[in-house]
Write a structure and sequence with these properties.
It is a single chain. By secondary structure, the protein is mainly α. The protein is built from 15 helices and no strands.
Length: 489
Amino acid sequence: MKIKNRNDLRLILMIILSLGGQIVSLYKSIYTAQYYGTSDAMDAYNYATNLGTFFFDFVASGVATVILPAYVKKIKNKSVNSFISLIYGIVIIILIFVYLFRRPLIQILTNRDNIFIDAFCNYVLIAFLIQACISLVLVLSAFFQSKDMYVIPRIVLFVSNITVLIVLLIIGKASIDVYFRIIFIGAFLNLVINYLLAIKMGFKYVPTLKLADPDTQKLIALFAPTLLSCGVFKIHTLIDTMITTNIGTGSLTILTYSSQVSGMISNFVIANMLTIAYPQIIRGVETENKQKELWKYAISFQAIICLLVCGFIAIGENGINLLYVKGEFTAKSGHILYMGALMYLAAQILLIIRDLIFRFFYAMENTKDTVSNSIISCVFNIIMSLILVKPLGMYGVILGTFISGAISMVMILFRMKKLYGLEKFGLNLFELIKNIIVLVISVFAIILIKKHIIIENDVMAILIYGVLTVIIFVILAIIFKLKAIKIKL
């Protein structure tokens, strides 16, 4: 991928900033693993966080998906503000109800003991507040993206994360309650700074409700199917949480760490590229070759994911042993974490394509088809998780997500072919398959190397195996003439 334009430079800067943020996030995970282990308290906090995410994150994703085109098309502020006020007003009312009746609700949703239930009741409020801050930042990020100011939210997040890191390094081991308060302060700082900068750049928000406004009604009409699409995904995530919680103490915490580790590896690259890709896909649908931007990003992003998967197979367990396996976190838990993170990361090979196709549908103002796709995928995911959790435990929950994601991708491709056609699909599919072939050969090569060159020291293993993995993958990418290495982002 040649660096020849402003998008490439912005992407590199965003990746560097996000990498700093991911390092801080990694330290927070290590901190909780070392000092709090896989305890009832951590299970309770993660459950409360996932519950808050269920309400806030899918709303924020849906709102951002709808208002980004609205900002790009310069729809009047009062319409956008009315839309935001309505959606978040409903969420706040729901969460107040959940908080007031938190004890009977958690008793219904889980079969855990009173230690877990008491911890959940104590931590649910601060978990909700943290998720609220994160959710509102996503909405502000949509405004920045509409102005082609992709880097600003990353800089602010980096500053707030560094502040949290410094505080944690200064205080050392703290009670779990103090830790959660520090995380909330960091999230609130991130929100406040983003909001002040957005105001300076023209963002105007005044709480208002103008339901009769035509533009507001249009935004609501677009949001409803988007909400369902994001919502059903969050429903199966919440159900996965409930299933894993009932496996036993520590299972939910390890599942959460697995998701975080895979996210830290992929998101600092992929999330940034998706941030740039979506506005480009929106603009691309206005051109003659509507799908050109979509497939360009699909081929590039998948190639990067393949490299990340290969690298994680090579050095992932060494990294987890080095960083996580200490204090209250055992080697057995570390191995389970590694396998779970690898499964999550490998799933992105297919899910990244599906996510980009979804964004193409959003750009075409078609959110209804993504809803039906997500509902079918969600139902299948729940069924597979329930079937596989008994023989495979936590791995069964992750595998259910992987299988349902693959089915979702195939279904949305067929729907796309019927509605819009598939531009140069044979050539694009060939490039995607070549990415996977390079991945498979690279994995076999690194496994053979690790079998014959055994390195006991984790740091040396990460350095040597990591460099060898990159060299092998790049050489094979050149041999197979991967299109990804020639694409300009």
